[in-house]
From TrEMBL:
Keyword Ribosomal protein: no
Name the record gives this protein: Sugar transporter SWEET1
Species in which this protein is naturally found: Carlito syrichta
InterPro entries: SWEET, SWEET_rpt
Function of the protein: Mediates sugar transport across membranes. May stimulate V(D)J recombination by the activation of RAG1.
Assembly description: Interacts with TRPV2; the interaction probably occurs intracellularly and depends on TRPV2 N-glycosylation.
Keywords: Cell membrane, Golgi apparatus, Membrane, Repeat, Sugar transport, Transmembrane, Transmembrane helix, Transport
Length: 189
């Protein structure tokens, strides 16, 4: 974004869903007393906030992006209010917050596939990031293994789609190798 001074080929939805995902898991880690989960997601939330600010800086339609960000953060705050004020005991909070986190994790892993139809139609993966695909595969596999180690289905189950969607994207890279001269304009989700 900084190099091109543009967000034309950058999706906003993955940034936003990842930020909500990090903030949700940070809360889950704090409630559970899991320092690893808390620390990793605190760093992730800070980095995602930075990405969102950079995106906003270069985005010509700031009001749309700000509206989407405010709406999703509003949902997050309503969720926090529910978990901290209306759910009586810690075990129930942990279970319900785990489900809440799972929904955002799955949406985060599925959001880069929003342009799947366009990739297949254009027969080009120019609008997909290979490095992000590899990072997603490694991250989701690491969290899945961590969840298995802790026997925590709230960590294991929602990270499994990240492995699957990464393999789908890798298959697309194999089927439609990137070409330097194509210009892929992403759907602005």
């Amino acid at each position: 974004m900084r190099m091109t001074r543009s967000v034309d080929n950058v999706q906003f939805l993955p940034f936003l869903t990842t930020e909500v995902n990090n903030l949700s898991w940070l809360s889950y880690g704090a409630l559970k007393g899991d320092g690893v989960l808390f620390a990793v997601n605190a760093v992730g939330a800070a980095l995602q906030a930075l990405y969102i600010f950079v995106y906003l800086h270069y985005c010509p339609r700031k009001h749309v992006v700000l509206l989407r960000t405010a709406a999703l953060l509003g949902i997050l705050l309503l969720g926090y209010g529910y978990f901290w004020l209306l759910v009586p005991d810690t075990e129930t909070q942990l279970q319900q917050l785990g489900l809440f986190c799972s929904v955002f994790t799955i949406s985060m892993y599925l959001s880069p596939l929003a342009d799947l139809a366009k990739v297949i139609q254009m027969k080009s993966t120019q609008c997909l990031s290979f490095s992000l695909t590899i990072a997603t595969l490694l991250t989701s596999a690491s969290w899945t293994l961590y969840g298995l180690r802790l026997r925590d289905p709230y960590i294991t189950v929602p990270n499994s789609p990240g492995i699957i969607t990464s393999f789908i994207r890798l298959w697309l890279f194999w089927k439609y190798p990137q070409e330097q001269d194509r210009n892929c304009r992403l759907l602005q989700t």
